[in-house]
Amino acid sequence: MLKNKDILDEKDKRLRLVSEEVTFPLSKEDKDKIKLMVEYLTNSQIDRLAEKYNLRPGMGMAAIQLGIPKRYLVIVHEIAEEEFNTYIVCNPKIVSNSAEKIYVEMGEGCLSVNRDVEGIVPRYARVTVEGYDVEGNKIRIRAREELAIAFQHEIDHLNGILFTDYIDPKNPYKDENNYRAI
Ligand code: NI
Fold first, then answer.
1. How far is the CA of 153 from the centre of ligand 1 (A)?
2. Residue of 21, 81, 154, 176 with catalytic role
3. Are strands 60-62 and 123-124 parallel, antiparallel or unpaired?
4. String of b and e for 32-48 (b: at least 16 CB within 10 Å)?
5. pLDDT tens, residue by residue, 55-107
6. Greatest extent of the chain over all pairs of C-alpha atoms, in Å
7. pLDDT digit string (tens) for 150-169?
8. For burial by CB atoms within 10 Å, which of 25, 75, 130, 152 has the most?
């Protein structure tokens, strides 16, 4: 089981690496890591388990957050009370996006950023992501709102980008009226 301490903190330089594309078949090690990522993200969003195992709640994780510079990510999206859609995408790419941009009004969060960061992070309201599942089959996902933000946030990790990079601490709510709050 993954623990909070297994997740790299924002000060760790490895989070700035540009991760490498994976090839198939995935190694057993990578498949095992993916299972651990799914387990962590799911448990972390179930209050009693988050408390029991002392997990910080999160809906997405990129491999580099575990120190693995490979292009895969996991998103566990809660669609109803303790009901989740799980997305595992290798070599993900955003192939189209809406013109409209949105931001998380409460502020975006990240399992690698252990502090509250105020400010807005403009994201596309809708994106289409293409990539591969764990077996190497091509997949395409249409995501909107919170899920679209999660994909953009996790794909940024694969390119060494953190959400805090978008925020100017001197003007954290810059241009907020240009985007829709969610
Ligand atoms: Ni993150």
1. 6
2. 154
3. unpaired
4. ebbeebbbbbbbbbbee
5. 999 999 999 999 999 999 999 999 999 999 999 999 999 999 999 999 999 99
6. 47
7. 999 999 999 999 999 999 99
8. 75
